[in-house]
Amino acid sequence: MTGPEYAGLGGWTPEKLGVPGAVRPVVTAPEPVLSRPGPEVDPTSAEVVRLAADLVATMRVSPGCVGLAAPQVGVSAQVFAVDVTGHPKAVTVHGTFVLCNARVVEASRWKAGREGCMSVPDLTGDVKRASRLVVEGALPGSGEPVRLVTDGFEARALQHEIDHCAGLLFLDRVAGAHAIYQRKVYL
Amino acid sequence: MNELAITVIGRDRPGIVADVAEVLARLGANLTDSTMTRLRGHFAMTLICVGPAAADVEAALAPLAADGHLLATVRAVTPDAGSEPTGEPYVLAVHGADRMGIVAAMTRVLTDAGGNVTDLSTRLTGSLYVVVAEVELPPGVSDEVAGRLTRVAAELGVGVSLRPADTDLL
Questions:
Q1: Where is the active site (chain A) (predicted)?
Q2: Which CATH architecture has domain B2-77?
C-alpha cells in the first residue's frame, strides 16, 4: 500500500476499523431505501464504524462485487465500500476502502459504459460516467478527510456508489429509452 | 392469469401512448414488458399485458381504431417459463448504402452460428442504412462469426462491427 496513488487514503485499511464485519443481506429494487437520499453520518460513531466493517464483509463475500453502499444493505446513509483490486478494466486502484459523506468535486472525460448492480439483478443499462474523478469524503473511524484522485473503472465504481448514497440507481441515469437491457445469463 | 401480446400501430400523434395505456389500465390489464417507438412517422407499440381476456381488450381498444388511423391487435400468448441460459452478449452494427437483403444476410450468419438476436433496430435515412442488434452468441464462436459477417458485409458493400456488450457489475 505505497505509491502516490494510495496517498489519498494515507495507508488506510479495513483492519483499522478494529471491529469484525458481519455479512448483511443485500436488498433489491424496488426496496424504498434504495430511492431515498441517505443522510450524512458522523464517521467516528461506533454505528458507522460497524456499518463500514459490514459493508466490506458483505462486499467480500459477494462474487464480482466491486462496491457496496449503505442503502444496499438497507441503511439510508452516506457510506460505501469500494474495491476494484484485480479488475481487468481498473487503472488506478486504491485497494479496499470505505468513504463517508463522499462527494464528487471534479469530473471529466465522460464515457458511456454498460452497468449492472447487485440491487437491480435482472437489468443492465448504458450510463455515461466521468473517467477522471476527484472525490472528497471522510474515513470511517478517524473521520479524517480524504481526497481521492482516480480514473477508469474505479472512477465509475465511485460514481455508482455515491449515487446509491443519494438514492439514485443506474436506472436514473440511463442514456435513453432503448438503453436498458435484460441481464444476460452467462453460460 | 391471461397473458396478452398487443400491438398498436398508426400515424404518430401526441397522446397515443396515454390513450392506449388508459384503456388498458381501466380494464385492469397490467402492462409488463413493452417497446414503443416511432418508425418513419408511424408509432408502433408492442406490449405484453396480463389480466383480462383478449376479447375484452380488443373491444376496449376498438374505439381508438375506429377512425382508421390506428391498428390494434390482441392475442393470448403462453407465459414465458423464464429465459434459458444462452450465450455471451454482443452488439452488431451495420451501416452502408441501402440495398435489399442486408438484415436477411446478416442475421442468417448469426443464426447459422447458433446465435440469437434479442433486440434489433434499423433506420434508413437518405441512402444510409443502419442496423444495430443485441446478439447472444455461443461461447467461443465470436471470431469466426465476425469473420463471416465481414465477408458477407463486403459482398453487400456495407461495413460491419461486432463487439462484446460487456457489463461492469458494480
A1: 161
A2: 2-Layer Sandwich (3.30)
pLDDT score of A150 more than 90: yes
The answer for residues whose C-beta is within 8 angstroms of residue B167's C-beta and 6 or more apart is A114, A115, A116, A124, A183, A184, B89
Please work out, in degrees rounded to the nearest 5, the angle formed at the alpha carbon of residue A80 by the alpha carbons of A77 and A82.
Answer: 175
Chain B segment 38-77 residues within 8 A of A by beta carbon are none
- Provide the chain A residues 21-60 that lie in CB contact (below 8 A) with chain B: none
The catalytically annotated residue of A5, A115, A154, A161 is A161
| pTM score, whole prediction | 0.87
Q: What is the pLDDT of residues B70-122, one digit of tens each?
A: 999 999 999 876 666 578 999 999 999 999 999 999 999 999 999 999 999 99
Which class would CATH give B88-164?
alpha beta
> A141 in a domain, yes or no?
yes
Is A165 annotated as a binding-site member?
Answer: no
Task: Please report, for chain B, the start and end positions of each structural domain, with discontinuous segments joined by +.
Answer: 2-77, 88-164
Query: How many folded domains does chain A comprise?
Result: 1
Q: What is the interface pTM, i.e. ipTM, of the complex? A: 0.79
Is A87 annotated as a binding-site member?
Answer: no
Letter for the amino acid at A106?
A: E
